[in-house]
Design a protein that fits this description.
The complex is a heterodimer of chains A (138) and B (168). Chain A has five helices and no strands. Chain A has helices at residues 5-27, 36-54, 56-62, 65-88, 103-137. With 168 residues, chain B is mainly α. Chain B has a domain at 1-67. Chain B is 75% helix and 0% strand. Chain B has helices at 2-7, 11-31, 35-59, 72-89, 107-118, 123-131, 133-167. At the A-B interface, helix 2, helix 4 and helix 5 of A face helix 3, helix 6 and helix 7 of B.
């Protein structure tokens, strides 16, 4: 892949900030706009940008196919596991209040885990679908 | 813009136009103060789906075939459905009214109690992840299932193609 020098350096410079913004959207979702879904899509967008500029192999070095495929069900399991944790602690499914000492902290913790699950599934799925399309085109 | 998308024969142009449309919709949503939705629209509609559509164009031909005869029945059906939908919106309360029915039942309760019950200042997040946790679990499962489906379709076909190649 011998693309334009400016394009490659520009991509290199912007990639960490895309990831940083994704993490900001993820963890600031309680206070501002954003959340797991948007952060997952932005993370996947970072991997896709890397793949477009530097080729698929470079992208699969940081996000291997096996990892991406495991992330898809893992996120759903994190989400459902948060619900089942509430169930085991004696409340309803997806009731976050028993997760911590008081109800407020429990809710914060529950939302954190749930959003993390959404992030993992969404970013994994988007990247895996992109990989599948690209490998089909080879 | 819709007319341009329909009239366009080059599918690459169609993808570019739908991306522009997504960006415009994202701007409209920001004007409507729905920043969460605008963010999703910009990242999914304009970002990921453009990439996926371009990847699809890489696999298929990029010009649409001219249909042999105009489908008059399809035209009538779509115009009819459009008229019914517009007629349905006439019964809705005027755009942006604060005392519409949907703002009267659950919304005030969510807005009033979200800080007390969940301590999350962004009501969108608390509704999405807490009050409506089941729905979001369902959505996550839908994304997972859709991803599995796409991967099975694309990779299964590739494996079959390879096997046919071995037989030859």
């Amino acid at each position: 892949m011998s693309l334009d020098l400016i394009l490659r350096i520009g991509t290199k410079l912007i990639l960490p900030f895309i990831l940083l913004f994704a993490l900001y959207v993820q963890f600031h979702g309680d206070y501002g706009p954003g959340g797991g879904f948007q952060a997952g899509v932005i993370t996947a967008g970072m991997v896709i940008l890397l793949a477009i500029t530097f080729g698929l192999d470079a992208a699969q070095r940081i996000a291997p196919q096996s990892l991406v495929q495991r992330m898809m069900p893992l996120g759903v399991l994190i989400y459902a596991g948060t619900g089942i944790a509430g169930l085991l602690l004696g409340k309803n499914f997806l009731d976050y209040s028993p997760l911590a000492r008081d109800s407020t902290h429990g809710h914060e913790l529950g939302i954190f885990f749930v959003e993390a699950g959404v992030l993992v599934t969404v970013s994994g799925t988007m990247t895996a679908v992109f990989y599948a399309f690209v490998e089909r085109g080879r | 813009m819709t007319v341009a998308i329909v009239r366009q024969r080059s599918l690459f142009g169609v993808v570019v136009l739908t991306t522009i449309y997504s960006f415009l919709m994202a701007s409209v949503l920001i004007v409507l103060d729905a920043v969460d939705v605008a963010m999703t629209e910009a990242s999914v509609g304009a970002g990921i789906s453009t990439v996926i559509l371009l990847a699809t164009l890489n696999l298929v031909k990029t010009t649409e075939m001219r249909s042999p005869r105009p489908h008059l029945l399809a035209l009538f059906v779509s115009i009819g459905v459009g008229i019914v939908l517009v007629w349905g919106t006439l019964a809705l309360p005027p755009f942006g009214t604060a005392d519409a029915v949907i703002h009267k039942h659950l919304v005030p309760r969510y807005l009033a109690d979200t800080i007390k019950e969940t301590n999350v200042p962004n009501a969108v997040t608390s509704v999405l992840a807490d009050y409506r946790g089941y729905d979001t679990l369902g959505e996550t499962t839908v994304i997972f299932t859709a991803g599995i489906g796409v991967m099975l379709l694309l990779r299964g076909a590739r494996r079959r193609g390879r096997r046919e190649g071995e037989n030859e």
